[in-house]
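Sequence of Xanthine dehydrogenase, small subunit (Caulobacter segnis).
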Amino acid sequence: MGEVIRFLLDGQVQEVRGANPTTTLLEHLRGPMRRTGTKEGCAEGDCGSCTVLVGEAEGDTVAWRAVNACIQFLPMLHGKALMTVESLVKDDALHPVQEAMVEKHGSQCGFCTPGIVMSLYGRAVGAKGADAPVGEVLAGNLCRCTGYGPIIEVAKAVTAEAAPAVDLAAVRDETMLALSFEDEVHGVTRTWLSPRTLDELAQAYLQHPDATIVAGATDVGLWVTKQRRPLPTLISVSEVAELKAIEETPDELRIGAGVRYVDAIDVLARLYPDLGVMMRRLGSTQVRNSGTIGGNIANGSPIGDMPPALIAAEATLVLRRGNERRELPLEAFFLEYGKQDRRPGEFVEAVVVPKLPVGRIFKVFKLSKRFDQDISAVCGAFSIAVEDGVVTDARIAFGGMAGTPKRAKACEAALVGQSWSEATVEAAMAALETDYAPMSDMRASATYRALAARNMLRKVFLESLSPDLETRVIPESAHG
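Predicted 3D structure, token representation.
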């Protein structure tokens, strides 16, 4: 039983046996299932032509999410429901979204159209993350033909409808959820483990310390589709309920490592409005529907957007190995490029974020070539306390400026104890040269990064003096 992947497709139980654990959902759809409406464009979760809807149990309901099938491993669908573009046609009649695409000329070459249709259908049925402005919902669907004008008109024409009702009981009893199997692929045994509790996860990772932990696969998926890396053992955390919990107290927020961006945006935006704004530019709707807060941190990327903001917010990590837990400041987790303070068999369990004290300045700036769905050239986060015109505390962190997300200690020291003035800010800007020696790459030159980081601090100062001062680009998607 445990070797069978079970899911619902259009309400019908599907069973897959003998699967390679790193087979993508897209490969399975276009291959054995012959559902070729779902397209492969980029195979890295960027273009959205492979967008499908996945429904999963959330309390007593089923929550639907638009996701990129190209970087979802097939076992990740276990116990869930699936809809593809073929699912929308009923009795040979097109769905209203499809009809509107025809009537309003929203499709030209047609390659991206199925993914766009699924994103707009998700918006119609109230899928997660789809209550945002149209431009934000479609930021993860790239179209080279239409210029998006007709597609926006389609979105405006589509009316809301009830989400499809499915009964996951047929694929979610306790026996069926115990997914654990090995499969020999080209002479290599590949193992997929899916623990259901924190204790089971801790034990599994102790037994397989070299395993790859899979949460949303928004990065790990690319290891397979782009780098062709063999992943002998994978441990999925998607069924560990404790990792999906968000707990709020009067003083802090505890976010489980398996909490997806889409589920964390609202609460973080309430406590840290600037962070909420930045998170809506972090990836696309499809990426935020899959990627997790803990996965972004554990991956240790020097250009990850969440760590600088969480470092500035004085967040701490909860790490677990077996029955042992330890906590450390988030900035101490990143040791050097590609290396984190994590022992074999130890995983990120949660991140704890203190609530922002009243009156404290907190700003986050993401600078990238594209406004939507792009990797940062520089991401800067600033948390500054000013009392009676004097800076009493400062926490400043940048991504993209070093081999790890890193605090600007010299810059902070130049601020603390000084008046919150232009002269002080100028001195602190100069101190950034001591903190960082950025590199040049395809996203930005070292000179550009250094200048951008300095100007971000200046922008914090200007916005603090004149909160209504327009210093930011407002995307068109924010207006409709």
